[in-house]
From TrEMBL:
Protein name: Type II secretion system protein GspH
Protein keywords: Membrane, Transmembrane, Transmembrane helix
Domain of life: Bacteria
Membrane spanning residue stretches: 12-32
Length: 172
């Protein structure tokens, strides 16, 4: 009886081990790539969702759309609202503006600095507002598009989101 391995057995063992290791490595890298894609998409979706929620809240609470500084049906658009919320001292009415600043959606209240309300990992690629009047009620249509910032151009980090919403002013 001989003890040990033949050369043929050793080659078969090495081949089987190589197949198993390459399969596990491929699965590992695929899992990481999928996680990165999911994270990029989720970051973009969350940013757009939050922006729509903030704009919806402000539109619902607004007294009116301030037409002189609002840019409708244009990309990038700007929305200006007259509001009685968060008034500066001594004022009866205040203004809230939504517009693009350096690729991010910004909210600016009267006498305050603008605040970016989208993530710094996301670029807002399109922003359009539409004024809709139905039976005397004023609504604002919002269309927003955003891209995940991907300086390396990696395909697994590409995420492009478009969303739209229509919000009615409650005070009309």
């Amino acid at each position: 009886m001989k003890n040990g391995f033949t050369l043929m057995e050793l080659l078969v063992y090495v081949a089987v081990l190589a197949i198993i290791v390459s399969t596990v490595a491929t699965l590992f890298f695929w899992t990481i790539s999928s996680a990165n894609k999911t994270q990029a998409t989720q970051e973009t979706v969350d940013s757009v969702k939050f922006a729509l929620e903030v704009m919806s809240y402000e539109i619902r609470a607004a007294d009116a759309v301030y037409d002189p500084t609002t840019v409708f049906n244009s990309n990038p658009g700007q929305l200006s609202l007259e509001t009685s919320l968060f008034l500066p001292s001594g004022e009866n009415i205040s203004y809230v503006d939504f517009y693009l600043c350096d690729g991010r959606l910004c909210l600016k209240r009267e006498s305050q600095a603008p605040i970016a309300i989208t993530s710094n990992k996301v670029t807002v690629s399109s922003l359009t507002f539409k004024k809709i009047i139905t039976g005397g009620a004023v609504s604002v249509g919002i269309e927003i598009g955003a891209d995940y910032i991907n300086p390396g151009g990696r395909p697994e980090l590409q995420a492009i989101i478009s969303a739209s919403s229509t919000v009615a002013l409650r005070k009309y």
